[in-house]
Amino acid sequence: MPEAGGGNVWGALGELSTPAELLRAARGLREAGYARVDAHSPFPVHGLERALGLARSPVPWFVLVLGLGGAAAGMALQWWVSVEAYPLVISGKPFFSWPAFVPIMFECGVLGGALGAIFGFLAMARLPRHHHPLFESQRFERMSDDRFFLSVEAEDPLFDREGTLALLRRLGAGHVELIELPEPVEGPAAPTGSAEGA
Amino acid sequence: MAHARERPLIDPREVSLPEGHPLARLSLVAAAVGAVVLAAAWGLGGTRFYASYLTAYVYFLTLGLGGLVFVLMQLVTRAGWSVAVRRLAEHVTGTLPLFLVLFVPIAVGLADLYPWVGGVAGDGHDALLAHKQPWLNAGSFYVRAVLYLVIWGGLGWWLRRESVRQDGLAGPRAVAITRRLQIVSAPGLVVYGVTVTLASFDFVMSLDPHWYSTIFGVYIFSGAMVGILALVVLLAVALELGRGPLAGLVTAEHYHDLGKLLFGFVVFWAYIAFSQFMLIWYGNIPEETVWFAERLEHGWRPVTLALALGHFALPFFYLLGRDVKRHRVALAAGAVWLLVFHYVDLYWLVMPSVVEGFSPHWLDLATLVGVGGLFAGALGRLVSRPALVPVADPRLPESLSFENV
């Protein structure tokens, strides 16, 4: 059993060995009322979002707004160039020849939508970040190989060191552990170490 | 490939229409009404009949052809998700032989439809038609049309028959049928691409024989895909609602994927339609622009705008979100809308080349009811007999447990 010490606990981690166990345990955690739960798997597991009770991602809205914005900006740019800044008669057509502008408007819309998808996702996933408390766990490395994990954050109102670990065990986790927050590093003039002997 | 089962996953009788289902009886009524209305329209209609008839004929033909290419694509990609709805498309494909019979009025009215009939080339007035005469003449048109229709009808009928035959088999013999269907589907797609492209030139594009567009075949194909996806959604909903035989088999996951494809082909149709328009507009060559000029004058401009809105802009935003695609009634409403606009699309392709100005006629409705009644009758008969799901398909379990990520 890991020594919880007096340090700050980030949360609890439970290890499962199959996707089916992961789904069952995730459902169990949700039924117990936990909300700040996440699952970690080497590959997408069907039905996991539902088992965890995750809310719908807001990323599609980023895509919609930036896609439409990109299309509008693309058309506006071409209008400004062709009508305001540098009007040229091209094959006898009006300055604002919108059919000719549609392909570039379309591509700008695609670009905006793609950027919305990437940066919307990064923002919602709070990425990039250099470290995560879960990386403190040695066993967690296997989540990119052949193991499945459920984590419960300590910020969950139901979180209780012993209780949460026991529940994870009851839900089938073969190994459970508490994840401690790494000691904060407070800049170059760090205070003299006190963790060592504690 | 999933391993071979000793017996079908589902009893075929459980997923068939029960005896005396209203749909089966309705289809008989539809066929009778269709035949009577069509005969009356042909008898009373005069030459205007042929223009309306061609529109209705091509409309329902593209639904059958959409079904054919949908089935071929599912087979060639070894698709798992679509097995639960593939039989519905196979039934639609099974109606294709009907169009060989329904070709008769077009063959009779050829001279009233196509300006290239009857040796315009002979007197030397029209160099372009003279140049095209080896291709565009009545004799070779009949040969080609019958050839297309026999190929489509034969391939469609065979695909459906083999798939239905599989229902009674199990184990390796069922798997062997899936393999054979897959092997035929790859060259089948090539034959499909060539015949549909040429047929779209012959049946529709040559109504205005001076005009040409090399993308025209793709345009017809894109409309056919929109049509068949909408029709499969409608059939699935009709056979699933109210504890129908497909209840519990066709799920929100299947609707979601059908909806995604429908959305995709709405965009694809617009992409092709605009590509055709923009190049001709930009090139600004009179023998090309005349085709669009006809469709922007004489009352056709509102139809063109309605098509851009109703066949693209509105369904684009309607089908964009996830919720509509996963809600069967909402998706079915979109499907009905798109089936209406698929007809508007074909009306817009055919009529301005044949009839002076935008002038709707009772014959348009009569031929739609006539051909539609016969099509619905044939479809109803095909749907009402064998299982509505390929019960022995080795990928059926995959389809039934399929979920969108």
Ends distance of chain A? 18 Å
| Percent in strands of chain B | under 5%
Q: What is the end-to-end distance of chain B?
A: 21 Å
Number of domains of chain B: 1
Overall average pLDDT of chain A: 88
Oligomeric grouping of the chains: heterodimer
Biggest sheet character of chain B: none
Q: Sum up the overall morphology of chain B in one term.
A: globular
Q: Describe the largest sheet of chain A.
A: 4 strands, antiparallel
Q: H/E order of the elements of chain A?
A: EHEHHHEHE
Indicate the overall shape of chain A.
elongated
Beta-strand content of chain A:
5-15%
Largest interface: A-B, 11 and 11 residues
Contiguous runs where pLDDT drops below 50 for at least 5 residues of chain A: 1-5, 193-198
Structural overview:
The complex is a heterodimer of chains A (198) and B (405). By secondary structure, chain A is an alpha+beta fold. Chain A folds into two domains: 9-56 and 134-180, 2-Layer Sandwich (Alpha-Beta Plaits), CATH 3.30.70; 59-124, no CATH class. Chain A has five helices and four strands. The longest helix of chain A is centred in the middle third of the chain and has 27 residues, at 59-85. In chain A, 24% of the residues are buried. Chain B has one domain (29-396). The longest helix of chain B is centred in the middle third of the chain and has 33 residues, at 171-203. The interface between A and B is small, with 11 and 11 residues.
